[in-house]
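Dissemination and training. As part of the outreach component of the grant, students in the summer workshop were shown how a complex can be specified as a set of sequence lines and then modelled as a single object. The example used during the hands-on session is reproduced here so that future cohorts can follow it. Participants entered these lines:
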Amino acid sequence: MSNAAIADKRPSTLQGARLPKWSPYAIAGGSVAVAIGIGLAAGLDSRVQWGLIAGLLFVFGTYVIAARVEGRRQAKDRIATSLVWVAFLLAVVPLVSLIWETVQRGVKVLDVYFLTHSMGVVADAEPGGGIYHAILGTLEQVGLATLIAAPVGVLTAIYLVEYGRGNLARSITFFVDVMTGIPSIVAGLFILSLMLMLEMQPFGFAGSLALAILMMPVVVRSTEEMLKLVPNELREASLALGVPKWRTILKVVVPTSIGGITTGIMLAVARITGETAPVLLLVFGNSFINANPFEGAQASLPLYIYQQWANSAGSPAAYDRAWAASLTLIAFVMLLNLVARGIARWKAPKTGR
Amino acid sequence: MDISTQKTQASPPIPQPTDAEQKRAARGATRPGDRVFLALSRGSGIFLLVIMAAIAVFLTYRASLAISKDEANFLTAFEWNTGTIPPKFGIAVLVYGTIVSSIIAMVIAVPIAVAIALFITHYAPRKLGGPIAYVIDLLAAVPSIVYGLWGALILVPQMDGLFGWLDRYLGWTGIFSWDGGPARSMLTVGILLAIMILPIITNVSREVFRQVPQMQEEAALALGATRWEVIRMSVLPFGRSGVISASMLGLGRALGETMAVATVLSPDFDIHASLLNAGGGTFAQNIASKFGEASEFGRDALIASGLVLFVITLLVNGAARAIIARRKEYSGANA
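and obtained this result:
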């Protein structure tokens, strides 16, 4: 078997000396072994410290060995490679932990009973109850928000792509960008200021209005991107046949990009479904079933999670319900994402690339 | 249909359209249907502008109601007593908390996000790049309240080890001293925010790194550059403005994040030198946690603090957009 020293002696005209392919693994194994040795010898009880020592040894060892065999530039390259890998693994840890904990703790109480009952007669600290009222509230609020935001968003995007010239279009584009950055709680405060003025009590539709404000710019932006993908030849062909512009847009441009537009709207829906802050201010939460979004406080799934966490004084039953509701929410959002991306792939316009 | 055939048959030498006709054709709106449709779509666009204006106007109006009765200095007071007579409240603590938590989040998230973007575009095996990018997208889809729940119940207990270590070796700085209480502090909030803004920074940076001219990279490789040298000499300089604007988009998210901060932080409306001890507050967290028991005047005061948050995020996002606008090829709005 070759090792570093042998590889060093082998002459090559085109390439400098390289470490063999297995060397990173060998160095990694070596540093882990040494780290365990150091950890045992020094009596360090934390496994995290062992890991840190192993990591430092690996980076240092790689640099020294690579610098001796391959030169300093190659050594730097190897360090950069290992740092990039470390960053990636570091980011995976919280994601895996989040999904794992949510699934593991959420399945405990997640069953048909949980999905079909409300919290009406259950105190926050007691076991039992469910999220039916919250699911109902979320579906109604998000549905109404979509009914407002989707048409406005799509029409605005059509204006920007098909008609938009001059100052009006430019300022709309700018403010759509600005609107994407509005914190959700500010959108909630805006509707709240209207409600204070009209002396209204919390109700579901107020939440829908705030959610619609958050949703509109997302729909505009994604629809715009999709409309821009429609080849100009299609528009020209239709116009050349004498079809009016509005019919060209409705019968040619929009149908061509309908897959992408649907995807954008669904992703926007997925995004506002998880919004808690505006719902907290405007819809207020309710442990009873309230099917009327236009009167009286309603519940909502994200709000339910927050209230189970906040109002239960650490009751394990409430935490279990919070996790189960989180799992339901994540499952719903992920499902929307997957279906949306599926539609995008299935209906993607052929751009010739 | 019949109009176009008539025209072509009637005049074999194609008649040049007059100026007026050309203009009308260019404008497109010549028929009743066109006019209605144009009015509808332009109306929607104007509606968006009206909403933005209304947000600014109404928030300012309600805020002015509260601030005019404030007996303390709204910008510098260290208290939030809206129920007392006279009411005294100020945003100094919130400004501090919001900025500190966001800075911590940025310091952690930006290097890691850039590294992940590089990993996806330049380091990962070709077949892995796509799925990883997809997973990062899903990470962005997780609702913030779930991050909050996870942060409060899983992340906070995990922080004890790190905090003890920081306190032992860096406690003398004052910034990292720890009283051993629950880790519901600014540093934990910053770490959680970093996890939450990682996807958006990664996605936008990735888009930029993808657009580095292939020729530049190949030229560097042909000159014998290592992969790291290629990245340092051609990828990073090309992507710098993109990374900056991506970071600012992430900063905008971090500044306005409500639920994750509200669940993790144990607020006390005070400024602490130590990042490890529980306490502090941010704009959004303060609104969410004080809203429940606030009177109408108290709500106006919260709206006033929300207005400040609105202005800050507008400035940050505006700056990010200005940088993006200089390079029109990509937009971070979808990320």
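The beta strands of chain B are 80-81, 88-89. Students were then asked to discuss how this feature might be tested experimentally.
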